[in-house]
Every structure is written in C-alpha cells, then in structure tokens.
Design brief:
The protein is α/β, with parallel strands linked by helices and about 200 residues long. Helices cover about 30% and strands about 25% of the residues. Among the domains are: about 20-70, Translation initiation factor 3 (IF-3), N-terminal domain (Ubiquitin-like (UB roll), Roll); about 95-175, Translation Initiation Factor IF3 (2-Layer Sandwich). The protein has a four-stranded mixed sheet. Strands 5-6-8-7 form a four-stranded mixed sheet, covered by helices on one side.
Amino acid sequence: MIPPRNYPPRRPRVRENVNEAIRVREVRAVFPDGSVEIMPTLAAVRKAQDMGLDLILIAPTAEPPVAKAMDYGQWQYENKKKQHEAKKKQHVIQVKELKFRPNTDDHDYEFKKNHAIRFLSEGNRVKAVVQFRGREIAHVDLGKKLLLRFAADLSGHGLVEGQPRLEGRNAHVLISPVKATTAPKDKPKEPGKDPTVH
C-alpha cells in the first residue's frame, strides 16, 4: 500500500493591489461619482466597500499612489480585453525560408522570387538558402552568384543583411522588408485652370 502524500496546504490567492493588500499609507482615491480625495488607505477601502466596490491600486508609482473604487471582476475583464486588443494589433515578424539549388532554372527562380516579394510586402523577413549536394560543393561561387542576383532583384522590396554566408553545405542570405515611406503625390493640374481662382 502506497502511503498518502503530504502536500502542503494551498494558500488562498491574494489579490495584489486590491483592498487590504494595498501596502501604502495613503492614496489618491477616485470614486465613481468623480470625487477625488487624498486619504488613508484603510479609510478609502472602507468607503469603497460601503459602496459595494473594491479599492484597486491603478498607479502605484504616482505621488501619492492612485487607487480607484470599482468592481474587481469588471477591472480584470477590461484589462484582459485591452491586452487582447494589443496582441491583435501586434505583428509578429517571421523568417520565411526559400531553398534553391546552384543550378535552379529560371522558371523556378521567378516563382520563388515572387513568393519572396509577397513575404516582404507582408512585413516578414526572407532567408534565401542555396543547398549544395554531393560534388556541387565544388561550385560554391555559383550559389553565391545566385544569392547576389536574388538580393539585387529584391532591392526595391527588401534590404540585404550582410553578404551571402556559407555554413556547412548551405549558403544563405537574409533580406529584411523595406518600410514604405511614400509621400503623397501632388494632383496634376488640369490644363487651363488656375488653382488660385475659385
């Protein structure tokens, strides 16, 4: 028979910066009716609880720290919503890898170049890799030429990060997207019309 394990008792989760857990002597308390008072923390907690609310520390670094009387569950929900919105707006840059051989034909090259243009326009980085198999390693110069040609063809869409590098049986080059900074073009004037005359 296996003896029962003695797990330590679970501690109840303490809500940080809420009600009695606020560790400052006084706060600038903000209440739902718009009133703002600098008062002892315990008095502010009591006042918030009399209203059926919690006192939440929202700006701990302010002088004095700012605490707001509101529903804790509602505050958590709003915080999660803000974080979710911020994540949605955030764009994660990925590195898209395109593989070539030293003797890649023109059709395959063009196909992969178009893919690279699409990846760069989406804001991702492109890693072009030339793989050498067997005796192809004797023709490293062909692979480097291919990578330099590829980088030159993408010069309007991306910036090359360094020169092509050889690692083992692969040569590669990394290309980052160019941020578009197009200035608004002036509208062409219609012949016979003076823009100053209305």
